[in-house]
Design goal:
This protein is 32% helix and 21% strand. The protein is built from 5 helices and 6 strands; from the N terminus they run βαβαβαβββαα.
């Protein structure tokens, strides 16, 4: 497998996935470059949404497809933002405007609870064809806590407010290479690489 379509229009995710896939010798093509629009994500679990996105992109692009569904979960908030992470505070506005509203809502909610532990979760689905009966499914998580003031300028989304367990730095304070090594997405992709090595084309 040398070329796959990435079932996402999120520039942060596309950048991270392309960086992580490059050492595997896989060309990652954003779905928008192939005229593929975003799939509906009506489901209540990361896995179901990732499967829907991968099948949608594979069907329209005629290529194997990799989909990522991920988000931030705060147990003390009932798992929110969870699968609604991208649209936690609504769907209006640009991605930057949504990120700002999402973070403001998260901080306001987290300030009301004593336990601000949180984790990022990612599930990756690789389907070789839309009807692939055995898609590869891997996941990863990254534990830390919510901080009430932003730190750092890297990353995207909730990263300035997510302090990592390992380094006591926010995800936005990490160099991209360190984030790719430690993150939920990096862990999931490492597992995907192992699965691909065990399942040659």
């Amino acid at each position: 497998m040398k070329k796959i379509v990435i079932a996402s229009n999120n520039p942060g995710k596309l950048r991270e996935l392309a960086q992580l896939l490059e050492p595997l010798g896989i060309e990652a093509v954003p779905q928008a470059d192939l005229g593929v629009g975003e799939a509906e994500e009506p489901h209540e679990t990361f896995l179901e949404n990732a499967l829907a996105k991968a099948r949608h992109a594979s069907r329209l692009a005629g290529l194997p497809a990799l989909a990522d569904d991920s988000g931030l979960c705060v147990p003390a908030l009932g798992g929110e933002p969870g699968v609604l992470s991208a649209y936690y505070a609504g769907r209006e506005g640009s991605r930057e405007e949504r990120d700002a509203r999402n973070n403001a809502k998260l901080v306001a909610a987290a300030a009301q609870v004593p336990d601000r532990s949180a984790f990022y979760y990612c599930v990756l689905v690789l389907t070789h064809a839309p009807s692939d009966p055995t898609p590869i499914v891997v996941d990863g998580s990254w534990h830390g806590r919510i901080v009430l003031a932003p730190r750092g300028h890297n990353g995207f989304g909730y990263d300035p407010y997510f302090e990592t367990e390992q380094l006591a730095l926010t995800a936005a304070q990490l160099d991209p290479s360190d984030k790719n090594r430690l993150s939920h997405r990096g862990k999931a992709l490492a597992r995907l690489a192992s699965r691909l090595a065990a399942r040659p084309e």
